[in-house]
Amino acid sequence: MALHKQAKILNERQEKAVLSSLQSSTYPTRNTAMFLLSIKAGLRAKEIAALTWDMLLTPDGQLCEAIQLRNTASKGKQGGRVIPLNKQLKQALNQLLEESRPEHGQKPVILSRRKSHFPAHTVVNWFADLYKSLGFEGCSSHSGRRTFVTRAAKNIIKAGGSLRDVQQLAGHTTLQTTQRYIEGDSEAKKRIVDLI
């Protein structure tokens, strides 16, 4: 099987650069939420585009503690999953909620400038333009997702979990797929060998 070129993961410096640049964008609240849905929740472009407020809100209109991603918004029959909200993402979504004031739960979270659905291919192009403008070669709409999975894998033991938890957060059907997303770390390998 040939190796496929994967989207590069983002380091913390790059993440901060993206967040800083988004503050001066035309739609800073929406754009920040879109970026954080990728890097802090591991959502695919399709999932960002398909995310509706009813997957995020309680019946009384408050933001939930997790994204309730349905299969229909994801990939395949078992792509739906529950993703706890990262604090930074929750703050961005609360701000977007205040600005959006959705009148019904089926309304998309990410809207175009015409206040209509933001298609998946537009999300892909938005990320491509963002990373290109910052000079991040090899980055794509999948970079945030790969960063999320890699960071989760590196920290899951500290949280008392296992790689199976990372698999479920990513919505992968097999651990093998999850493992392909995880970027190795040469320094960590050196530290592990020294511990043996």
UniProtKB/TrEMBL annotation:
InterPro entries: DNA_brk_join_enz (IPR011010), Integrase-like_cat_sf (IPR013762), Integrase_catalytic (IPR002104), Tyrosine_recombinase_XerCD (IPR050090). It comes from the Bacteria. CDD domains: DNA_BRE_C (cd00397). Residues 5-194 form the Tyr recombinase domain. It holds the Pfam family Phage_integrase. Keywords: DNA integration, DNA recombination. Transmembrane segments: none annotated. This is Tyr recombinase domain-containing protein. It comes from Piscirickettsia litoralis.
